[in-house]
Design goal:
EC number: 2.7.13.3
Number of helices: 21
Number of strands: 18
Helix content: 40-55%
Structural class: alpha/beta
Number of domains: 5
Keywords: Kinase, Membrane, Phosphoprotein, Transferase, Transmembrane, Transmembrane helix
Distance between the termini: 174 Å
Strand order of the largest sheet: 2-1-6-5-4-3
Pfam families: HATPase_c (PF02518), HisKA (PF00512), PAS_4 (PF08448), Response_reg (PF00072)
Enzyme class: transferase
Shape: elongated
Oligomer: single chain
Strand content: 5-15%
GO molecular function, one term: phosphorelay sensor kinase activity
């Protein structure tokens, strides 16, 4: 029997070592699983208890009984601690260690004080039963519905152990007593064998629990990974950017909705390969619009270099005549663990609308640059016109005075006539520049474009070769426009003359057509859409077409630039079309040009239609002394002729001495000495008394000293320091009844309004003929004062 007991203890020791090694390996391999570490400690205490039993009966009783029994109880306690750790329940080591210490003390007392084997066995059974009971409680709480098979097996094994310990605690008191007074049991080897089997079962069960926990963790990890993958797919699918994943063989692995929408693919449509730039139905374009070579395609560059490609602007065009889609592309490789290429990630953002906005912005910038160029030239023209008009006025006035001083048959009169003609041509050039810069006065009133067209065509017919067919068409019911008829006629003559030149002496056809464009018509320029919607009227369209040489795009983009001309040197000034543009825009209109080289050109002019309820403005040409509706006089009307009649050479007789007291006294102010000298001679020759100044303050001081001494103040408008309007305000404050006229080389609506508000009687155009200037003076001076 003793041999059998030792053999069983040796086997048990081997089983304890096996269990300890197995649990230790699991704790090192799977540290995230709670329990194997404590089960390793439990195996060590079980082995210690087996060693203690093996030393009986030769060993000391303290080791064989006290330590062995306490080690077995500690083994069960740490099995329970490991179980709670596995189940994720809290555990406290201090109570466990205190209970183990109490068991050890009890074994010492039952060995040294009261040597009772039955009491020691009962203490061991009670401690083991308590541990089994709390283990069953934890299993029931964790798995109340018995869903985990491994825990249920552990539960039944624990129940079996609990029943065996209760039977041992009770049966030990009924064992026979030996002659030495000890109770002996022939079933001890059987009990040791049963406990060894219990250790083996628990090894299997706990190992299964570890495997179950690893499986659960793996399932949770896969579930989390699946959720993350689903979230990633949903995120990529709902991205506004396109995402395409290609395999190294150019087959498509995945594509999101934005990419399908960009490429025009349906949800179920299968496109397994990347669009081939060389295929007839796919075209990849560079940023400049040229075809993209294959080696520049981002996908090919990633395959060739293995490096990412960033910020490539790519145009995609599918099908003949399809609209090009533009994208900002990025591509980068996705490698496997050993560095091999797995996929090529291709991402892009649709920038088609941005590209269109950029092109539109560039067009607007070009228009702005053109507008600024026109504005700068207009400002320059206004500044130059002041001095140039003074020069022309001096030339014309002195030539007229010199002609009056010569007898009718004098040879010098012909030279003076040529001087006057050249000065008048210069005056017309200045007027064209002012028309371009919109710095000339306009006599707006409701006019019928058909009447102006008929008059312009009759004038143009005389200068048109007989082989050119001149056609005019006027749609019935076309409304009037609010315009200056002289300037509209100038526009039609300029366009007609350009059309004749475009035919280059060949037979052809020039057509003038006038019709109406309703407010909602899509062909209506944007400049007139808003004004037409506000006023509730459409536009009058004037089309001038020819079948001449036409223009290419480069020429068409420059036709409205000042001094740009395609004619030979000396054949054109390059101001015709800029003048047309200035006049049309001054009337609130717009111009569109359609031209094809070799097929002809069509100019389409759009003017806002005059509202039917708007009354016609009655204006009287200032040259004949008409007054405006506000009581002020209007500026002189410009005639369209290039060669007005020459003034007569009738001389003014000298004034008698006794009439000097009745002379009207004219105060003339100008910063140009030459013009002051001319005006003085001109007016004195007609019997006026003239006082001239070139300094504004001196002129104001003269009126302040003698407010009633002057019958008319004629002042230049554009002078340094104080303008003519400032002088007029100061003088009228001193002498309110004194007539005041302002002369200017360019007259705007704003200038006329300010002049009327300041009390100025009339605004005079400085380059008018001498007779017109003298007529204004004669009309504005006060009647002779009574003696």
């Amino acid at each position: 029997m003793q041999l059998d007991l030792l053999t069983i203890l040796a086997l048990r020791l081997c089983v304890d070592g096996l269990a300890t090694a197995a649990f230790f390996a699991q704790s090192r391999r799977h540290p995230s699983v709670g329990g194997p570490g404590w089960w390793t400690v439990s195996g060590l205490f079980s082995a210690l208890g087996s060693v203690g039993l093996g030393l009986r009966p030769d060993g000391p009783e303290l080791l064989t009984f006290g330590v062995a029994n306490t080690a077995f109880v500690a083994s069960g306690a740490f099995l329970w601690v490991g179980l709670r750790s596995y189940l994720g329940q809290p555990y406290a080591l201090r109570p466990v260690l205190a209970a183990l210490l109490a068991v050890f003390v009890g074994n010492l007392l039952l060995t040294s004080v009261w040597d009772s084997m039955a009491a020691r066995q009962a203490l061991f059974s009670v401690a083991g039963g308590v541990i089994a009971g709390v283990a069953l409680r934890d299993i029931r709480r964790f798995d109340p519905f018995h869903r985990t098979l491994e825990l249920q097996v552990l539960r039944w094994v624990t129940w079996f152990k609990l029943v065996a310990l209760i039977g041992l605690a009770v049966g030990v008191w009924f064992l026979p007593v030996s002659p030495t007074g000890e109770r002996t049991s022939p079933a001890v080897p059987v009990l040791l064998l049963a406990t060894m089997i219990d250790v083996l079962l628990r090894l299997v069960i706990f190992s299964s629990l570890v495997t179950l926990r690893l499986q659960q963790q793996g399932d949770r990890a896969r579930q989390v990974l699946q959720i993350r993958e689903a979230d990633s797919r949903a995120l990529i699918e709902n991205l506004g950017a396109g995402v395409m994943v290609f395999r190294p063989d150019q087959t498509l692995a995945s594509v999101n909705t934005a990419a399908r929408r960009f490429l025009g693919w349906s949800e179920c449509e299968a496109h397994s390969a990347m669009p081939d730039p060389l295929a007839p139905d796919w075209r990849l374009l560079r940023e400049d619009g040229r075809p993209m070579p294959r080696h520049e395609v981002p996908f090919e560059r990633v395959l060739a270099t293995g490096q990412p490609v960033a910020d490539v602007i790519l145009g995609v065009q599918s099908g003949d005549g399809a609209q090009t889609q533009w994208a900002l592309c990025n591509a980068y490789p996705e490698n496997d663990a050993i560095g091999g290429l797995r996929h090529v990630m291709f991402t892009f953002v649709d920038i088609t609308s941005l590209r269109r906005a950029q092109w539109h912005q560039q067009a607007l910038e070009q228009q702005l640059a053109q507008s600024q160029k026109m504005e700068a030239l207009g400002t320059l023209a206004g500044g130059v016109a002041h001095d140039f008009n003074n020069i022309l006025a001096a030339i014309l006035g002195n030539a007229d005075l010199a002609r009056q001083d010569l007898p009718p048959g004098a040879p010098a009169r012909e030279s003076l006539h040529e001087i006057s003609a050249a000065a008048r041509r210069g005056r017309e050039l200045v007027r064209q520049v002012l028309a371009f810069s919109r710095q000339q006065p306009m006599q707006r009133k409701p006019v019928c474009v058909g009447d102006i067209l008929a008059e312009s065509c009759s004038l143009l017919r005389a200068a048109t070769p007989s082989q050119v067919q001149l056609v005019q068409s006027f749609a019935t019911g076309t409304p009037d426009i609010q315009a200056d008829p002289t300037q509209i006629g100038q526009v039609l003559l300029n366009l007609g003359t350009n059309a004749v030149h475009a035919l280059k002496g060949q037979p052809g056809r020039i057509e003038f057509r006038v019709d109406t464009v309703p407010p909602g018509d899509p062909s209506l320029p944007a400049e007139l859409v808003r004004s037409g919607a506000v006023r509730g009227v459409g536009a009058v369209r004037v089309m001038v077409s020819d079948d001449g040489c036409g223009m290419d795009a480069a020429t068409r983009n420059r036709i409205f630039e000042p001094f740009f001309t395609t004619k030979a040197v000396g054949s054109g000034t390059g101001l015709g079309l800029p003048v047309v543009l200035g006049i049309v825009q001054a009337h609130g209109g717009a111009i569109q040009v359609d031209s094809v080289p070799g097929e002809g050109t069509t100019f389409m002019l759009y003017f806002p239609a005059a509202p039917h309820t708007e009354p016609a403005l009655q204006t009287t040409p200032a040259a004949s002394g008409g007054s405006g509706p506000d009581g002020g006089t209007m500026a002189p009307e410009h005639r369209g002729d290039s060669e007005p009649p020459l003034p007569s050479s009738v001389e003014i007789p000298a004034m008698a001495d006794d009439l000097i007291s009745d002379q009207r006294h004219i105060l003339y102010l100008d910063d140009d000495d030459t013009l002051v000298f001319l005006v003085r001679r001109l007016l004195e020759r007609r019997g006026y008394k003239v006082t001239t100044f070139t300094d504004q303050k001196l002129a104001i001081d003269a009126v302040r000293e003698q407010p009633a001494a002057f019958d008319l103040l004629m002042t230049d408008y554009n002078m340094p320091g104080m303008s003519g309007l400032d002088v007029a305000r100061s003088v009228l404050a001193l002498s309110p009844n004194l007539p005041v006229a302002v002369a200017s080389g360019y007259i705007t609506d704003e200038l006329q309004a300010e002049a009327v508000a300041a009390g100025v009687r009339e605004v005079v155009f400085k380059t008018d003929a001498v007779e017109a200037f003298c007529e204004v003076v004669a009309r504005l001076v006060s009647p002779p004062r009574p003696a």
